[in-house]
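Structure catalogue
Derive tokens from sequence
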Amino acid sequence: MSLGIQVTNLLSRAFQSTFFRESYTPQTTRRNMDLIAGVPLALLKRKPSTAIESIDIDGLPAELISTGSHQNQILLLLHGGSYCMGTLRSFRKNAWQVSRACDSKVLHIEYRLAPEGPYPAALTKKASWERYFFGRSISRRRSRTRTDFSPQR
């Protein structure tokens, strides 16, 4: 094994053991994930043609992210994390990238996570999301719901 690969493996193990220990509570792990992957709202708002609207859907925070002026459809993005990880902050950049790549607005929702809200708590507000989503979409026929199932094989 080359020296570069050995150094990369060593740094990876040190990174994981620092931020994602088995002994950490889910709240601590989420906080660490926000520190590593999280993008502040103000930072993304500075990007050209970016608009981020913070909204509340039946008591759950959400963001409507737009990266262009001619976007006529909305994607409902349910971030990955197995219903126990991830926040608006930690997946905000992904939502922004989806908006740019698909040339559409993205409705990004922070749903309840386990273990505080055991399954199916994350989906209990699904009807509220859909009412908001389809109420804001240009046309129901042109709107789609997408779920992040990454990685796909």
Remarks:
- The CA atoms of residues 81 and 148 lie 9 Å apart.
- Strands lie at 51-57, 60-66, 74-78, 105-109, 144-147.
- Helices lie at 3-19, 26-37, 41-45, 88-102, 126-136.
